[in-house]
Amino acid sequence: MIPVTTFKGKKVALFGLGGSGLATAEALVAGGAEVTAWDDNPDSVAKAAAAGIPTADLRHVDWRVFAAFVLSPGVPLTHPKPHWSVDLAHQAGVEIIGDVELFVRERRAHAPDCPFIAITGTNGKSTTTALIAHILKTSGRDTQLGGNIGTAVLTLEPPQTGRFYVVECSSYQIDLAPTLNATAGILLNLTPDHLDRHGTIQHYADIKERLVAGSGTAVIGVDDSFSSLIADRVERAGAKVVRISRRQVLADGIYAKGSALMRAQGGSSSLFTDLAGIQTLRGGHNAQNAAAAVAACLAVGVGEKDIVEGLRTFPGLRHRMQPVARKGEIVFVNDSKATNADAAAPALSSYDRIYWIAGGLPKEGGIASLAPFFPKIVKAYLIGEAAPAFAATLGEAVPYEISGTLERAVTHAAEDAARDRQGPAAVMLSPACASFDQYKNFEVRGDAFVGHVAALEGVTMLI
Fold it and tell me: Which segments does the entry list as coiled coil (predicted)?
């Protein structure tokens, strides 16, 4: 835990007592703050009270006594309308912040020079975050990994000299971190997302820009117009900018040329490393993730040899294009995190002969947008509620069966792939659906896939 000492002896209001909210309340109390916490869910309030967190309905307290209001990132700050607690904070003139802001204040107070890499973007955040942490750890550095990737940032070890932090930041967290100042900040890309919470794509982009604008080195993907303009603005403001690209040759920065990562300086390029053969970094999207990781690690002083070794040994992110087993020329890929069509596209683009397991609780739009990848699919195995609709979309373009269950789909896909004599093949779970019709979450679904694969005869597990 990181005790929040910067509010020692001060009164702090807190709303939102889910996982990260409860961790934040505990960190504040541990640091000596006088916390008053609340949540709209009575069960969460009861859990916090049982953990020793002072609770009171924030609608019935004097807000003028609070030095700050800490809001959990899942609670609406601006759109579709501010939560009632936000309105009360505004009326009292109380600063509204989140857990990432508390972390950066603790870092500044206790170890301002400890390296801190912050990562954001619409797509690829988690893979890039995990990749950077892996590079740092394999190079022997004391590494703390947290944030939006699933570990609340204030549950990490406290800042100290020589300790490296790798923190994934959602737009919600950035919106609540006005003094975010990473050693290296990464903006991977921007496409419309979370507009129900930000109103417009421009507001969403403005929030993302804050992360790189306050960083010592700004690593920015320039393959979309919003991010490219942000790179130009941040550079004009005097910041050091390292541009990355998966689609274009750069005069300065890190870019992908096929599977090769090129490092450009002053218009001259040289090979940094080749990602060919690294199964966990297949595809153009992962080339961008790797380029960002290279740029950030160089910015915090990691040597080229250590970076290349970290890339080579990266085990992948669980449930995201994760090779989990092999049988001859067949690779079994767990991409359970692909809960909509856009999220499934990277995995489908990365293999040439795919036995595709898809379906679950359908999302709006179905799988029509994946039609360009249909020629790569040898056969589809459809499960869950989406199976009939997905079958209608596939039509005569892709052979399919309605398997119904994941276990049956894995068995049949493996049998069919074993008969394939046309080269390497992938049996891939990339559902393009939520899991909730059959599984608690995508993690449970992915673990079930791994279990069914492990039960097959003759497979060699990779995890």
Answer: none
